[in-house]
Amino acid sequence: DTAVSQTPKYLVTQMGNDKSIKCEQNLGHDTMYWYKQDSKKFLKIMFSYNNKELIINETVPNRFSPKSPDKAHLNLHINSLELGDSAVYFCASSAEYTEAFFGQGTRLTVV
Amino acid sequence: AQSVTQLDSQVPVFEEAPVELRCNYSSSVSVYLFWYVQYPNQGLQLLLKYLSGSTLVKGINGFEAEFNKSQTSFHLRKPSVHISDTAEYFCAVSDQGNTPLVFGKGTRLSVIA
Fold it and tell me: How many CB pairs below 8 A link A and B?
């Protein structure tokens, strides 16, 4: 029974398209995140949600919009995709900013 | 803001040899510290964590880490590595549970047969 699951695992799309990545956690956590891992493996926080409310929004283009329909789900929608958006995107959840549990990642390739 | 420095980007080591992966963090306030491992094409898995208490923390797969407040360090150690330990290792810090995890740039551990 997967704790944090995200779909799809791979996403290949053309520049200019709009795409979404879905994330669900069954751990009962109040806090969820999106992280971006670049080609050099560096992990950077993008967004943090606590109980469906946006808490942290790091310097991310406004083409990226997170949506949390309930506290178990945090989806990421990306408009007008650019080549530089190619990366691995990780969803994670935690209880009160203790250890985060990560999904398997979504490898986004923009061509 | 918090920052984490992993001093070695790559560490090659022979099988059954000991290894230490170094991690230093910036903050002087109370922190939570973590080590994660990432195998190829997978997500991050928690190896161990320090929240409070004993400064020597034991984790999964035979790893341990020592919290040193005066040195602001949290180095990861294993006395004898296996081929299966080949992976990327990330150190992370949180301001005592008040902020999301901030990660270091990772250390690639390569175990050589």
Answer: 54
